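W.,

You were right to be curious about this one. When I first looked at the sequence I had no strong expectations either way, so I just let the prediction run and decided to look at it fresh. Below is the sequence, 141 residues in total, followed by the output.
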Amino acid sequence: MESFKTHTSRNTEELINLNNRILIVEDDDISYSLMEEVLNAHNINPLRAYDGIEAINIFIENAYTIDLIFMDIRLPKLNGYEATRKIKEINKNTPIIALTAYTHSQCIIDCYDAGCSELITKPYNINKIISLVDTYVINKK
């Protein structure tokens, strides 16, 4: 856990302001726990949605306060592609990072066609997660 904290050095106050402004859409508890642990180690407390419908509802309630979404592609009720499309209809400027274990070329094309900004493959690369938070949230300000 300590290696997560030392990956980057930032002002703690800057990161505390990110609480609940990152949404993780992930139905798998283990995958979510890893993402949450990485973000918590950097003083970020994310929101969670278990499926695409819940993601859309949380986003509607917080449409202009969520800075970044990590979206699993294979979800119950409504998949990540469709959830991404609907969220982009509400606010096209919110970056959405696809999370998938499937890296075949059609999946990658479908992620970008749905409106995803980037793609992370499972198992997660911790450095990539933090880099994306830097790019889309911290350095955006």
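Here's what jumped out at me. The radius of gyration is 14 Å. And, maybe more interesting for your project: The chain has one domain: 2-138.

Coffee later to discuss?

I.
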